[in-house]
Amino acid sequence: MIFNNNGNVFEQIANNYIKMxxxxxxxxxxxxxxxxxxxxxxxxxPNTVQKAYTMLEEKGFVTxxxxxxxxxxxLENNDPLKDFKDYAxxxxxxxxSKQELKDAIDLAIGGEEN
Length: 114
What we know:
Helices cover 54% and strands 7% of the residues.
């Protein structure tokens, strides 16, 4: 990665990752290098990489998992309701009844189990 004088280094790192994620070079679910490893590779401070990863997380491109790392979690057409419906259908196809799914939803959002 070559840095230029246009913007902060952490923004350049984040923008580079955004391009790679959107173009499919880095796929959904892949882990990014640790802050320390990437900083060493780029010859920069690990705090700079941390800022870049935080920016990516705030923009919805990655998810940080404690003691695991940072992985790509970007869906171009992110539609949580569609994702939920698709998953509910899969669970139903796998043998969960409609009532079991409804009960699980009720329990998850603060209802009581029947």
